[in-house]
Amino acid sequence: MDPKFPAWMYGAFLWSALAIFLLIAIAWGLCILGSYLERDVVEKFECASRDEIQEVVPFYDRVIGTGQRPSVNQLKSMFSANKSIFRFYKRKSVRGSRKIVEIRGFCTVIPMKRDAGVLLEKGELNGLKMDSTHIAGAKERCEVCYIGSIGAERNSAKAAVLTYVLGVIDEYEQRGCGRVYTRPTTEDGLRIVRKYGFVSVEGGGVPRIGELCYKELGDGQVRRRPVRVRRQSVGPLVDAAVAA
C-alpha cells in the first residue's frame, strides 16, 4: 500500500471497481435475457397466402388429423378461386433480433355459388370434393356459404377463431348470402350449431354429428349471440370442409 494514499482511498477504489463490475454483469445479463424475452406481441387474423397453404398442412394434420383434409393441390385450387377462404390466426412477436410468427389457429369459410348449395343438399358434394368451380369469386355474388375446418390448439385461440368465424359469416350476410352450411363432426361442433339455430338438411330436425345442416341468415342470431367455449375443449370446433 502506497503511504502517499490513505487507506480509505483504497477501500473506495475497490468498492467503485466492484460496483462497475456488477453494473457490467447486470447489463450483460439483461442483454442475454432480452434475447429470450418477447416484445411487440401482436395477435391477428390474416388471409393466407398461396405459400402459407403448404405451411399450415402440418398444423392442420396435428389439430384435426391426417387423411381428413383435401390435398394441397385441391386447397390451392380453391385458393385460386377466392383468396379470402383460408384465414390464419397468427401470433407475431420479436425475440432479440428475431421476428417470430406462430400459427395459433385457422378457419375456412367458403363463399359458394347457388348450384354448389344444391349439390350439397343432394349429397353430391362435400368438403373433400370441392374445387374452384363451386366457389364464388371475390367479385361474385355469394349465394350460400360453407363453414369449413376450424382449428386451434389453445382455448383462448379457439374462442378467438370462433368469434372471428361468426364475423366472417356476418360479412357474407351483408353481401347477400342467405344460407350457411356446415357439417359438425365433433361434440363441440354439434353444440355450437345447435346453439346458433342450425337444422339438419334431412327433415329440418336437430343436427347430429356427421350430418349436413344449415342456418338461414337474416335474423341476426349468428351475429348477436354471445360466444362461449368450453375451457376443457382443445380439438376442432366444427369440421365441415374435411367431412367425407
Properties at a glance:
single chain, alpha+beta, disordered C terminus, seven-stranded mixed beta sheet, elongated, 2 domains, 244 residues, Aminopeptidase, 39% helix
Indicate the structural class. alpha+beta
Task: Enumerate the spans where pLDDT stays under 50 for 5 or more consecutive residues.
Answer: 223-244
CATH class categorisation of the largest domain = Alpha Beta
Q: The biggest beta sheet, please?
A: 7 strands, mixed
Number of domains: 2
State the end-to-end CA separation.
89 Å
The CATH architecture term of the largest domain is 3-Layer(aba) Sandwich
What CATH calls the topology of the largest domain is: Aminopeptidase
Strand order of the largest sheet: 1-2-3-4-5-7-6
Mean pLDDT: 77
Strand tally: 7
Question: Strand fraction band?
Answer: 15-25%
Rg, rounded, reads 27 Å
Helical fraction equals 25-40%
Number of helical segments with 4 or more residues: 7
Give the full name of the CATH homologous superfamily of the largest domain.
Gcn5-related N-acetyltransferase (GNAT)
How are helices and strands ordered from N to C? Answer: HEHHEEHEHEHEEH
Global outline:
elongated
Topology of this structure?
Elements: H1 7-34, E1 38-47, H2 50-63, H3 72-81, E2 86-95, E3 98-112, H4 114-122, E4 144-152, H5 155-174, E5 179-182, H6 187-195, E6 199-200, E7 213-216, H7 221-224
Parallel strand pairs: 4-5
Antiparallel strand pairs: 1-2, 2-3, 3-4, 5-7, 6-7
Transmembrane segments: 12-37
Keywords: Membrane, Transmembrane, Transmembrane helix
